[in-house]
Amino acid sequence: MILVTGGAGFIGSNFVLDWLEQTQEAVINLDALTYAGNLENLASLQHDPRHVFVRGDICDRALVDRLLAEHRPRAVVHFAAESHVDRSIHGPGAFMRTNIEGTYTLLEGVRAHWATLDSGDKAAFRFHHVSTDEVYGSLGATDPAFTESHPYEPNSPYSASKAASDHLVRAWHHTYGLPVVTTNCSNNYGPFHFPEKLIPLMIVNALAGKPLPIYGDGQNVRDWLYVRDHASAIRAVLAGGRLGETYNIGGWNEKTNLEIVHTLCDLLDELKPDPAGSYRRLITYVKDRPGHDRRYAIDARKVERELGWRPAETFETGVRKTVQWYLDHADWVAHVQSGSYRDWVEQNYAERQAG
Ligand code: NAD
Ligand code: DAU
């Protein structure tokens, strides 16, 4: 059994679905169900006894201790976080609490639990911290991509809080010997992506005939990875990553934001033609994000060299699947937009609290 935190969010829910497709090992899923948590993502697991959902906060030490003592997971995969850069600019407090204090609370709970294991289980145990390339700061147009030894230079409240959490994880390994691995991944995209982020926002707005807001000049670069490829990378690092190491995960897909939006408009024009001509007509330049990082790019050679991991999707195959997924899941989008996804847990899910 493994304990996953944040498994009702975008990447966490894709990871849980992938995990239960690829293995028979059960998952305890601890998630506070903030605005970003959506149990509808896991509707297909509603009657699957291998998935136990627990609504709760990673800052709740008593709950963390209880789950670890009762279920004795062999690993913790830690996704739970406040994840949206724009929200961190408007209200950084929640980011400090969940990303820093929450990671600290988990580390302390895990450290206490780990100390109770016998030597075999102790050696096999893993704490896998899921982090971001944003901790490395911003690259110039011709700089080489981020390697694992790139200095930490976080620029937003979000990335600073994630950098702090990475440092805590590193310190708990060096000081207490906790068996940790950390992955720093580039921008994910795919099913169940909350439509506050660039790709789903553009798809949903285009289909509604609303403006497609491009920050600044649209020339900021992100490096995109299909979310199920992130899930497979985490499985690979959890299984074979060296303790105390960090692994950069990325898809070798650098694109400007304008390129992304053009691609999405063109795919939509093909799959669900715009009654008014082309979705590109909706592109609107808006005020830039304060402190907007210019470019991220991940050098993913270490994870390939050591663990043989490579993404299965190209950007072209992944983005086509993603657009098609949003076209096929209008109900999911409508529930998110109306807010009714937040009632779903009460109406449809037999929440099984541990103990
Ligand atoms: P998300 O915002 O979609 O999901 C976060 C989940 O964490 C939600 O289900 C939310 O309910 C839960 N959560 C928030 N606060 C909590 C708390 N205090 N206790 C318990 N649960 C809580 O985020 P995401 O995009 O799926 O990102 C998951 C992780 O991956 C984050 O750590 C993020 O920093 C990292 N990451 C994201 C990306 C990306 O492109 N989205 C890329 C690299 C790394
Ligand atoms: O790099 C990994 C990070 O990617 C993760 O750690 C974060 O959790 C995740 O949210 C994401 O951060 P970004 O800020 O890169 O993602 P976002 O989708 O918010 O923005 C992507 C780019 O698009 C960025 O340059 C800002 C721009 N943008 C975004 C939105 C929402 C726009 O131009 N218009 C928009 O409306």
UniProtKB/TrEMBL annotation:
Enzyme Commission designation: 4.2.1.46
Taxonomy, superkingdom: Bacteria
Catalytic activity: dTDP-alpha-D-glucose = dTDP-4-dehydro-6-deoxy-alpha-D-glucose + H2O
Cofactor annotation: NAD(+)
Annotated keywords: Lyase, NAD
Enzyme class, UniProt record, top EC level: lyase
Coiled-coil regions, chain positions: none
GO biological process, one term: nucleotide-sugar metabolic process
Residue ranges constituting the NAD(P)-binding domain according to the UniProt record: 3-322
MF-aspect GO terms: dTDP-glucose 4,6-dehydratase activity
Pfam families (UniProt xref): GDP_Man_Dehyd (PF16363)
CDD domains with a match to the protein in the record: dTDP_GD_SDR_e (cd05246)
InterPro entries in the cross-refs: dTDP_Gluc_deHydtase, NAD(P)-bd_dom, NAD(P)-bd_dom_sf
PANTHER family named in the record: DTDP-D-GLUCOSE 4,6-DEHYDRATASE-RELATED
Family according to the record: Belongs to the NAD(P)-dependent epimerase/dehydratase family. dTDP-glucose dehydratase subfamily.
Name of the protein described by the UniProt record: dTDP-glucose 4,6-dehydratase
